[in-house]
Design a protein that fits this description.
Elements: H1 2-28, E1 36-39, H2 57-61, E2 65-71, E3 77-84, E4 87-96, E5 102-104
Antiparallel strand pairs: 1-2, 2-3, 3-4, 4-5
């Protein structure tokens, strides 16, 4: 009986461990608010929008054009800065909708 109880406790602990680790993997895939992420392309018409692979600054710096995306603390908005020859050419703000699509925010809002 004691061995059966230990086995059940061990199995419970193992299940909890895997659930926590799965949560950590999911959390690791999220973007940190306020931190810049760099991408080769940005397609706001994609539904649902998926950012793709983020690159480090050195990887995109060599490109003619790249995008810097910074997520808001709420996680429902983001700022997209476009760079050409490493010079910022424009900046747009987008609302992230519940369905995963993006809506461009008007300037000054």
């Amino acid at each position: 009986m004691e061995n059966q109880r230990k086995s059940m406790s061990f199995l419970t602990a193992l299940v909890v461990f895997f659930l926590v680790m799965a949560g950590q993997v999911c959390a690791g895939e999220r973007f940190v608010p306020g931190m810049p992420y760099y991408f080769d392309v940005f397609d706001p018409a994609q539904k649902p929008w998926k950012p793709g692979y983020d690159l480090n600054y050195e990887e995109v710096f060599k490109n003619y054009q790249f995008y810097e995306i910074i997520f808001s603390p709420s996680g429902t908005e983001m700022t997209v800065n476009r760079y050409i020859h490493n010079n910022k050419t424009d900046s747009e703000r987008y609302q992230i909708n519940p369905d995963g699509s993006l809506s461009r925010q008007a300037d000054g809002s």
